[in-house]
Amino acid sequence: MHIDGQETFISHLIELRDRLLRASIAWIVLFVCLFPFANDLYTVLAQPLLSKLPQGGQMIATEVVTPFFVPIKVAMMAAFLGALPYILYQVWAFIAPGLYSHERKMILPLVVASVFLFACGMAFAYFLVFPVVFGFIIGIAPQGVAVMTDIGKYLDFVITMFLAFGLTFEVPIVVIVLAMTGIVEVGKFKEARPYVIVGAFVIGAIFTPPDVVSQIMLAVPLWLLYELGVIIAGWVVKNRPAAPAPEAEVYKPLSEEELESELDRLDDEQKKAG
Question: Number of structural domains, the chain?
């Protein structure tokens, strides 16, 4: 028994290694394909700021190796996002055999929805939030001050904003999972609504630049997504099939053959005892 368990553990480790290797190869291959376009990818990423700079404005690099490494980081990020479906498939293929059928039915849609919502959060930040934030920052610059952002600092800012809005868009998934697993009741989520609204604006003040518009653009979606999660969680819990009730034990009388067999057994026991 110990040997079988050890062999099973080793086989799981080998499978985990193989799937991690496949996911890494997919990421590396896609990165190699995107490497020649690293500078173009960074230009696309920086477009929300470049479009707001005044005539002749540009970004700068304050370190020697920054012009080389920053576009490479962008290419690596783009390659990871492109390979993410395949990476998640490898993760799913590894854990799926150990799950029950109802767990597989629940987890797979949640994973797909999580990826979709995170991508929506990034798109929301890129297309709606960045133009507002950069327009505000450049607009309040004192006269005679040229806004020239370092490309490395810009990348750090963009990653922070992508994570902030991507995680914000995951709020419905968190609410649904907590409600489906019974950790938090739907009524508790409704009672916590005032605290969530205050917390949303606090988070918006922490993770966005110090302007009211960008803070609202993070806080309001966070609140609305929380409400959406509560509505969906309430519907899921309400329509969840009830667990089958245990069957009541029903008395069944012995048949004639069973009764004769039981009597014969009792007679044999009495003869042995006598």
Answer: 1
Instruction: Name 70's Cβ contacts closer than 8 Å, sequence gap at least 6.
Output: 42, 61, 151, 152, 155
Query: CB of 118 within 8 A of CB of 166?
Result: yes
Q: What is the CA radius of gyration of the chain?
A: 30
The rounded distance, in Å, linking the Cα atoms of 41 and 34 is 9
CA distances from 17 to 9, 13, 22, 54, 94 (A): 12, 6, 9, 51, 10
Q: Which residue shows structure tokens 């929805």?
A: 113
Of residues 126, 49, 47, the one with CA closest to residue 81 = 126
Domain annotation covers residue 56: yes
Of 127, 125, 133, whose CA–CA distance to 161 is shortest?
125
For residue range 111-144, what is the model confidence (pLDDT) as tens digits? 889 999 999 999 999 999 999 889 888 888 787 7
Compute the distance between CA of residue 103 and CA of residue 84 in angstroms, rounded to an integer.
22
- Check: pTM over 0.70? Answer yes or no: yes
- Asked if 177 contacts 109 with a C-beta cutoff of 8 angstroms, the reply is no
Residue 104 falls within a domain, yes or no? yes
What stretches of 125-180 show up as alpha helix (H) in DSSP?
Answer: 130-139, 151-168, 171-180
Residue 46: which domain range? 2-169
Does a structural domain hold residue 197?
Answer: no
Per-residue pLDDT tens over the stretch 163-218: 999 999 999 999 998 888 888 888 999 899 999 999 999 998 888 877 788 889 99
Asked if residue 158 is part of any domain, the answer here is yes
